[in-house]
Design a protein that fits this description.
Strand content: 5-15%
Largest sheet: 4 strands, antiparallel
InterPro entries: F-box-like_dom_sf, FBX25/32
Subcellular location: Nucleus
Main location: nucleus
Structural class: alpha+beta
Number of helices: 16
Keywords: Nucleus, Ubl conjugation pathway
Distance between the termini: 38 Å
Number of strands: 6
Shape: globular
Strand order of the largest sheet: 3-5-4-6
Pathway: Protein modification; protein ubiquitination
Helix content: 40-55%
Radius of gyration: 24 Å
Length: 333
């Protein structure tokens, strides 16, 4: 005779109906807290921590978004960590407001749209689109990463068109995704960078040439250097210097990769480093670097942001960095 009672191993999830559909109650509470006004959050934390005297930045620093990653099911636990829960617990939508983490989030969204957005569940699709909306709003607010958001919206639109007849979820939900992406594209297309007012503060062009060279040599994407060279004559001359492209070659590629295109009988002063960089870039691609990474703790199995940390029971926890592709591979996407 089958057992019809409630299994004690069941996670016992409760669901709540919102304007966007049904969501898990425990994740809905996290989203509500993340979307609260910053002044309200600061007031609530001050009331809870009356004995701690710290400024507002330290108060925000106490919040550590993380999630316990369940690698496999056991007899006692029949629940795996899903992507939608990880995106909420790690506060990926709030990470777009952090200049250190925004590039990591951009690469993560790019991989999701280019790989298997159509294979995600309806809940995960909604979370990804909400992160894209937060990214778009932050770009319109700060006027940074305009080219990045255009590329992401183009990838999202392509994924939605390709998965028109093969997606998971209802057709109504898919139509809402297309409408949301179209609205974001309209806002970005109407966006224009405002001219900076003459406030008397130092501008990039006011810096000494040595400082400008040092800054340009540490830019990851060479396209930004080429765009900077189009803005003024002095920056154009610096962007064409052999020393700058030599530093970029040594930064992005190892010696064996450079030797593939390095002429043997030319002197160092006659080497066209910009040409070598372009050939290496086409063959090997560029190096992806991020100011902040997601990390997986080997002691407690938590996924967390390195700059924020996580509450681990071990004093000396060992963790490994997760690239955006490694993070996606954890959920078998």
């Amino acid at each position: 005779m089958p057992f019809l009672g409630r299994d004690w191993r069941s996670p016992g999830d409760q669901w709540v109906r919102t304007t966007e559909g049904w969501e898990k109650l425990k994740l809905w509470r996290v989203k509500v807290f993340e979307n609260l006004n910053q002044n309200v959050i600061a007031r609530l934390i001050r009331l809870a921590l009356l004995d701690i005297k710290s400024d507002q930045d330290n108060i925000y620093g106490r919040r550590q978004p993380y999630i316990l990653y369940n690698r496999a099911m056991t007899r006692e636990k029949k629940e795996l960590t899903c992507l939608s829960e990880a995106l909420i617990r790690l506060d990926v939508a709030g990470a777009v407001k952090d200049i250190q983490r925004i590039n990591f989030v951009a690469k993560l969204l790019e991989l999701i749209f280019n790989k298997k957005f159509t294979g995600l569940s309806g809940t995960a699709q909604k979370h990804v689109i909400s992160i894209l909306e937060a990214f778009s709003n932050e770009v319109l607010k700060t006027e940074y990463n305009t080219g990045c958001i255009r590329d992401l919206l183009k990838s999202a639109n392509s994924a939605l068109n390709q998965g028109e007849n093969s997606h998971i979820g209802s057709a109504c939900l898919w139509t809402r995704h297309k409408k949301a992406v179209a609205q974001m594209q309209d806002k970005i297309s109407e966006f224009q960078v405002k001219q900076r007012n003459d406030d008397g503060k130092t501008k990039f062009t006011d810096l000494p040439e040595d400082c400008v060279r040092c800054i340009l040599s540490r830019i990851v994407d060479h396209k930004d250097i080429m765009r900077a060279g189009m803005s003024s004559t002095s920056l154009h001359l610096i962007s064409q210097e052999h020393w700058l492209w030599q530093q970029l070659c040594f930064f992005h590629f190892d010696d064996n990769q450079i030797l593939v295109f390095l002429p043997e009988h030319l002197e160092e002063k006659d080497i066209d480093w910009q040409y070598i960089y372009k050939r290496c870039y086409k063959r090997f691609g560029k190096k992806d670097l991020y100011a902040d990474y997601l990390a997986l703790c080997s002691c407690c199995g938590s996924i967390y942001w390195q700059s924020l940390g996580h509450p681990c029971v071990h004093e000396e926890s060992i963790s490994r960095n997760l690239s955006p592709q490694d993070f996606i591979n954890l959920f078998s996407l």
